[in-house]
Design goal:
The protein is built from three helices and three strands; from the N terminus they run βααββα. By secondary structure, it is α+β, with helices and mostly antiparallel strands.
Length: about 70
């Protein structure tokens, strides 16, 4: 029997890939990648092996509190 992976909508995910986060937040992929690499010590970054994951709600909060522009 084949097990089918269920996809959650982005607003239901705890973490987003850089590609998903780029689309979700409307930030260019390259700009978001550089930003994430410069903020690796922030609590909204999660490393999955060598892949950067963005903790969606924490990043939303960070943007609301700290950013006027990226």
């Amino acid at each position: 029997m084949e097990h089918k992976k269920q996809e959650l909508p982005w607003w239901g995910k705890y973490t987003l890939t850089l590609t998903e986060a780029s689309e979700y937040f409307g930030i260019g992929y390259k700009k978001l990648k550089v930003f994430a690499e410069q903020h690796m010590d922030e609590n909204f970054i999660l490393m999955n092996g060598n892949r950067i994951q963005i903790k969606r709600e924490l990043f939303e909060r960070y943007l609301d509190e700290n950013m006027n522009a990226i």
